[in-house]
Design brief:
This protein has 526 residues and is α+β, with helices and mostly antiparallel strands. The protein contains 9 helices and 20 strands. The chain starts with a helix and ends in a 10-residue tail after the last strand.
Length: 526
């Protein structure tokens, strides 16, 4: 290495600050509550080869491989055709490296003079991208075409000029096009900001220095991951768990894992897991990558940077045509729930080797609620989408956290004030579920309870839950946490249980939906 350690650290901090500044820009300039309040977005810098170098501090782990998936295709398909001022857009999980359609990816090549010096990218979860149901996240969908508009890798901005025909085609197939346009503008602006910052860094360093920074960051990250793996006991480890259902008739979908650890490498073999599901709980392979690499980082080296270097010592095997490596036209909208179960399985498999670092099963879900209708005051359509937190698994030294997003989906819970200001809805109750954390030497975290009713109109509700049939397990003698539930209550107070994965249920004025998210497992005998 020709650069000294101080200069390398300054450059590394500079790359991280580019990501963080772009993240905050996107958050502050977006229109939808899902981004500006819940922060369901990520930003990154990648090198000219498409290798992920840095992510924002608040980026979501589930977005890790989505960015590299899109950029890999971009580098291959548009090599030699990219120009300064271009911005590329995609969301499709089967042809464009995405993981589900609501996550729209934007990426811009960055040039210093005529030389490509890297890429900047961002992902934002849009509250609706069309499809059968408002919110594009309902259960019971069986083909990717039902889930929303499919965007292959396209050049949305060509040499600084927005391609309005492409944008019009996208927006025509989405609900709330004005809100979608606002969020896309925020993403474009975040790309432009990051592009300028990376070009400035490239101007301050020589090209050789910048490329050396990239290589050194990845090399050091790989070395740290290998060192962490080497400290883990050699051996074969296994675990299995199940998804509750796929929303389309399949129940108890198994996820089976065998981990082989030798020296400073690990192999994660999911052979024997469920075949591809009919419902929309399938994963593309890059989503499995995100879940596995998050789990390894969390267990072995939590301060390890999120970049391509962590991939090198790890092999992942998932059979094509399976739940964890689906093919077209497999439906994938609810992929976060399946990723959460993959995380549980990885933790369960590795726990015997590092019991003090492992935790009990968390709420294991990405419990989602969508309310949609016509605002009685404005006469305009609205879509309120949120994924709600739950319990975090208990740890060796302390209780699990209450009412939080866990693992790969570290978004925020939407405040009551934001809901009632933005939408014609009233939140009647928002509390922790007492007793929902599994008992143990340290108890599991508690789930959430939220009760919502439409104001002055009839609406529709779609809900998706996991750990609603099978509770989150405890560890080392700890007890299981409580399962989740959806209910609807009519004006007379009559309550009925709703399906775990529902699609556009009528919700009359005066009726309310009760959302109770799962708790988490306890750690150690009570």
């Amino acid at each position: 290495m020709t650069m000294d350690a101080f200069s390398l650290q300054i450059a590394w901090n500079g790359l991280r600050s580019i990501c963080d500044e772009a993240f905050l820009s996107l958050m502050r300039s977006s229109f939808s509550t899902n981004i500006k309040e819940r922060h369901d977005h990520s930003t990154a810098v990648l090198d000219p080869q498409g290798r992920l170098i840095a992510q924002a501090e608040m980026s979501l782990p589930i977005h890790l491989a989505s960015m590299t998936g899109m950029i890999d295709i971009l580098v291959e398909r548009f090599a030699g055709q990219m120009r300064p001022g271009d911005i590329y857009c995609a969301n499709d999980p089967h042809v464009a490296g995405g993981t589900h359609l609501p996550d729209i990816n934007l990426a811009a090549p960055v040039f210093a003079g005529d030389e490509l010096v890297g890429f900047v990218a961002n992902i934002a979860h849009h509250a609706d991208v069309g499809g059968t149901a408002a919110g594009s996240m309902s259960g019971g969908l069986t083909e990717v075409w039902q889930e929303g508009v499919r965007i292959p890798l396209v050049r949305l901005v060509r040499e600084g000029e927005l391609q309005s025909d492409i944008l019009d085609l996208m927006l025509l197939n989405m609900r709330l096009p004005h809100e979608r346009m606002g969020d896309l503008n925020a993403q474009i602006a975040a790309c432009r900001l990051a592009e300028g910052r990376l070009r400035q860094m490239a101007d301050e360093l020589t090209r050789a220095q910048l490329f050396e920074v990239y290589d050194e960051i990845l090399s050091r990250s790989e070395q740290r991951m290998r060192k962490a793996i080497a400290a883990f006991p050699d051996g074969d480890y296994s675990f299995e768990d199940v998804l509750d259902d796929d929303g389309a008739g399949m129940e108890d979908l198994p996820i089976r894992l065998k981990v082989t650890k030798r020296a400073d490498t690990m192999t994660f073999d999911f052979t024997g897991s469920s075949p591809q599901a009919r419902g929309n709980v399938n994963l593309t392979f890059n989503a499995v990558q995100s879940a596995v690499f998050y789990s390894l980082k969390a267990l072995l080296d939590p301060e390890l940077p999120n970049n391509q270097g962590v991939f090198a010592p790890v092999e992942i095997i998932a059979e094509p045509g399976s739940l964890l490596n689906c093919g077209p036209p497999g439906a994938v909208a609810l992929r976060a729930n399946t990723c959460q179960r993959v995380v549980d399985v990885v933790i369960g498999a590795l726990a015997p080797g590092i019991p003090d670092q492992a935790i009990a099963a968390a709420n294991g879900a990405n419990t989602s609620a969508v309310f949609a209708g016509i605002d009685p005051e404005s006469g305009e359509a609205y879509v309120y989408l949120e994924t709600l937190g739950g319990g975090m698994g208990a740890r060796a030294t302390k209780d699990g956290k209450d009412g939080v997003q866990v693992h790969i989906t570290n978004t925020s819970n939407l405040p009551i004030e934001a809901i009632e200001m933005e939408y014609p809805l009233r939140v009647l109750e928002y509390t922790l579920r007492e007793g929902s954390g599994g008992a143990g030497r340290h108890r599991g975290g508690m789930g959430l309870r939220r009760v919502v009713t439409p104001v002055g109109h009839d609406a529709v509700f779609s809900g998706v839950g996991e750990r609603f049939r099978h509770p989150p397990w405890g560890f080392d003698g700890g007890q299981a946490g409580a399962k989740g539930e959806f209910h609807m209550v009519d004006a007379e107070g009559n309550k009925r249980r709703l399906a775990n994965k529902s699609l556009s249920l009528p919700l009359k004025e005066g009726h309310a939906v009760i959302i109770e998210t799962p708790g988490a497992g306890g750690y150690g005998k009570p």
